Amino acid sequence: MNKASKDWKKIPALLGNLVENHKDVLFSMVGLSIVKGIRPFISVILMGMLVDAAYAGVEFSGMLRYIAAGVGGIFLMAAADGVLTMFFNRKLEYMQEIQAQPLNKKSMQMDYEYLEDSDVHEMRQRIERMGGWSLISRVLSQMQKILTAAVTVIMAVCVVVPMFVRSSHPLSEGFVGSWLMSALLVAAILALVFVEFRLGIHFHEKEADARKEMAGCEAKNKYYLDILSGCEEQKDLRICKQQRLYEREFAKLAAGIKTVVDKMAHYNTLNIFSQRSIAALTGFLVYAFAGLLACTGMISVGGVVTYAASILKFTEGMGRLVYVLSWLGGNVTFAGDYIDYMALPQRKHEGCIPMEKRRDNRFLVEFDHVSFRYPGSEVYVLRDLSLKFEIGEKMAIVGKNGSGKTTFIKLLCRLYDVTEGCIKVNGIDIRKYDYAEYCDLFAVVFQDFQVFAFPLGENVAAGTDVEEARVIDALDRAGVGERYRALPDGLDTSIGKEFAENGVAFSGGEKQKIAIARAIYKDAPFVIMDEPTAALDPESECEVYAGFDKMVGNKTSIYISHRLASCRFCEDILVFDKGKVVQRGRHEELERQEGLYKELWDAQAQYYA
Question: Which of 109, 122, 268, 524 is least surrounded by CB atoms within 10 angstroms?
Answer without folding.
Answer: 109
